[in-house]
Structures are given as C-alpha cells and as structure tokens.
Amino acid sequence: MASGGSPATTMRAVQYSGYGGGSAALKYVQVPVPSLKKDEVLVKVKAASINQGDMWIQKGFFRPFLPKFPFIPGTDVAGEIVEVGSAVREFKPGDTVVSKLNFWKAGGLAEYVAASEGNTVALPTGVSAADAAGFPMAGLTALQGVKTIGTKFDGRDTGANILITAASSGVGTYAVQLAKLGNHHVTATCGARNLELVSSLGADEVLDYMTPEGAALMNSLGKKYDYVINIAKASRWSVLKTTLSGQGRVVDVAPNLGNIVASFTTLFARRKLSLLNQSLGKEDLRFLLELMEEGKLRTVVDSRHPFEKAAEAWEKVFSCHATGKVIVDM
Predict the structure, then answer these.
(1) Which of 12, 202, 225, 315 is deepest in the core (most CB within 10 A)?
(2) Cα(85)–Cα(219) distance, rounded to whole angstroms?
(3) Any residues with CB less than 8 A from the CB of 171 and at least 6 apart, and which?
(4) For residue 180, what are the CA distances in angstroms to 159, 297, 306?
C-alpha cells in the first residue's frame, strides 16, 4: 500500500446503535481508522453531505437488512487521499476526490473513510469539497431521473414539457438545472420562500405548492406534461395522472405506498408511473463534476455545520425543509 503519511490509529466519528431516535440517537465516538481492501482508498474527509436516505435507514425502512449496528451514516464525502490499496492504479496519496460510499456500509460522518476506487472521482480544480460532497446521492439521483425521460445531453435534445416537484430539495435543485441543460421546458413546485431560488436555477415557471394552482400541479397555460419527475413524497398518482398528456409518464424518486402500487397497475397503461432505479456510477459522477467545473451546474447549499454539530445538520435534514444540500465540514 502507498501512504502519504499514516493517519492516527483512531478517529472521531458519529454513529448510532439502533433504529429511530433522530439526532438525539447520534453519538460522538472514537473508533479505529478503517483498514483498506486492495481496491480501496483511504480518504481524509473534508466535507460530507446528509441525505433523505440516511433518514430512511435510521427509521428502519430497510430492517432487518440494513444497517449493521453500530452504524456510521453518510454516503457522500469529499476529501484527500492519504493511503491507497495495492490494486489501486488511478489515485495516489495527496489527490483530492469525491466518493460515493457503499449504501450498506456507509461511514461518511468520520475523519477517515475507506472508499472503493470504482466509486471515487478526482475533484476538478476550482470545485470545493463542500460543493462536490453534495453530488453522489442527490446529484446522481437527479441525473438518473432526467436521463430516464430520454435526455442525452449530446446537444441534440429537443426537450419536452416536464414538471419537477419538490424542486428546492437537494435532488430537485440539481434536477431543474440538468433538465434545462437538456432543453426541457420546466415547471417546478416548491414552497413560497424558494420561488425565486428555483427560478434562478432555470425553471420556466415555479408554482407554490400551497396555492390551489400549485396543489393541482398545473402550469399557467394549462398544458399537460410529457413527463413528471416526482420528488415530493406526498404527491399521489390520483393527482399526478391528471397532469399528464396522453402518453405521459411519471418518474417517481420518492414514492409513497399508493404510488408504488400504481407503478404496477399502470405498467401497460398509456399514462404510467415508474419508480426510479438509481444505477448510475463513476462516469456519471465525473460528468456532473465536469458540468460544475464548466459553471453549468451548482450545488445549492442550505447550511454548513462543523463536525461537532453534526447532530444539528441531521436535524435539519430530518425536518424535510432543507433548501438544497446540508453539509458537514470536518
């Protein structure tokens, strides 16, 4: 293994030891620095982001399969490589990178983390660790959603009339920007306080979801949507389907039980709802970073919290009212 100076044998981390409890269940602990497999790199974390998925894990949505306790949460990190495994060829100690960690193992809210070379990408010059740390889960989910509706990003996209719900969320802020890069006409929904922000990201029309028009998800022209990228867990198929064109489709990022059922009952229907299958990886993460380097994509940061106040960041995400990404600085 190549090393850029061996780290301490122990490190600070945040972990929890059972389901539920929210931020109150988080414990600040001293644990061993992870050992490396041959295809892994050891990253000294500079910034990590917290996602809605972290909340679902703690609440027990994946029990009894996930997680193994005690559990260090956090799948999205950026930092500096301090050591590489024997089979690693792309990176060396001193490289700055962003990594998408294994969902089942996580480990991001810690001073050091072992990350797979296959899910790690070099950080472009000029892109901060905090901005990059927002990408792995939320950015790739947004990119998957926009690609699922046929966007190629090859300069030949003709675009469609689409709706993006919960557009001020972490996923939503990326999705609006990516959809506009794909030449789509974007109507977006969010709360009143974020109307100007979402408009600044490129949305053609922004609806306050608390108004009658926003609740009906209908744009000012009354034009039906070719696609809906649904990020709002409260959105029901019974409402979504009324907004679709004759062969319109909903791509659901955060489905409720009714929408999960609809994904099966509409399988052979003209208007349908499909669940997002997030399958993007390293090259797609690199693509997002290139867009950021070129100034075509940005991370909207709700708030930044020092590691010592990670519980406050956790609470912010659990409130479900964060605008963009919540970042923990190490």
Answers:
(1) 225
(2) 53
(3) 138, 141, 142, 145, 231, 253
(4) 9, 10, 33
Q: What share of the chain is helix, strand, coil (3-state, %, to 5)?
A: 30, 30, 40
Calculate the dihedral angle through the C-alpha atoms of 216, 166, 252, 317, rounding to the nearest 10 degrees.
-140
pLDDT in tens, 200-235: 999 999 999 999 999 999 999 999 999 999 999 999
The CA-based angle 107-111-117, given to 5 degrees, is 55
State how far the Cα of 103 lies from the Cα of 106, in Å rounded to an integer.
Answer: 5
State how far the Cα of 100 lies from the Cα of 118, in Å rounded to an integer: 9
Q: Are 55 and 26 contacting, i.e. CB atoms less than 8 angstroms apart? A: no
* Residue partners of 167: CB distance under 8 A and separation at least 6: 173, 175, 176, 188, 189, 190, 194, 198, 201, 203, 206, 231
